[in-house]
Specification:
This protein has 198 residues and is mainly α. The chain is built from 10 helices and no strands.
């Protein structure tokens, strides 16, 4: 096994374990047992457990960004629905890691993981602007999109932990939330009002 493959295998083992318990409760012994390697081998690739935790969580955010990067062409609503489905799929696949990333006060949160989360949020906003054909959004539109990404994160956190809403309803509901928010924004946006009265 190549060094990169071994490193990826250890990350995959950690993410598997995150599926059954919070990342901060997973120990080096748990990971080496799950990956069927020795402790010295673990430390050859990761100088500390914290570094592996951060790398594992970065894998989650990379998956989210990748899921947003490859969207089919089509009407804006279809593209947004596809994007939201992709986010749900990745968040569900890395459930515990995703929850750990976004949970307030997580003991493994770092400036690096915070930056990775911001990257996902920024990519989400870029995607929506592209789908809507808005090259120069007003400040109120940008605020709306940033608020919607917070709605998505909160909804996914609740859904991953409670599973009380059918998956096939969740993505449509989130897209409809954005549509409603943008409709409200259009009625109050000073930039739009000034254009219409000019």
């Amino acid at each position: 096994m190549t060094p990169q493959a071994r490193r990826d295998d250890l990350i995959a083992a950690a993410l598997d374990l995150f599926g059954s318990r919070a990342p901060e409760l997973v120990t080096v012994d748990d990971i080496v047992a799950h990956a069927e390697v020795s402790r010295p081998l673990f430390y050859r690739y990761f100088p500390s457990l914290r570094e592996l935790q951060v790398e594992a969580l970065r894998t989650v955010t990379d998956g989210l960004v990748d899921g947003l990067a490859h969207l089919e062409k089509g009407p804006p609503e279809d593209r947004l629905r596809t994007a939201v489905r992709g986010l749900i799929d990745v968040a569900d696949h890395y459930r515990a890691g995703y929850v750990a990333l976004l949970r307030s006060g997580s003991v493994i949160a770092t400036s690096e993981t915070d930056a990775a989360i911001d990257e996902v949020r920024n990519r989400s906003v870029e995607l929506i602007l592209d789908a809507l054909g808005l090259a120069e959004p007003s400040p109120l539109v940008l605020l709306t999109l940033r608020c919607w990404t917070a709605v998505v994160e909160g909804a996914l956190l609740s859904w991953l932990q409670e599973r009380d809403v059918p998956r096939e309803i969740l993505d449509g509901w989130l897209v409809d939330q954005l549509t409603a928010m943008l409709t409200t924004t259009a009625a109050h946006d000073p930039a739009r009002v000034s254009r219409e009265t000019a």
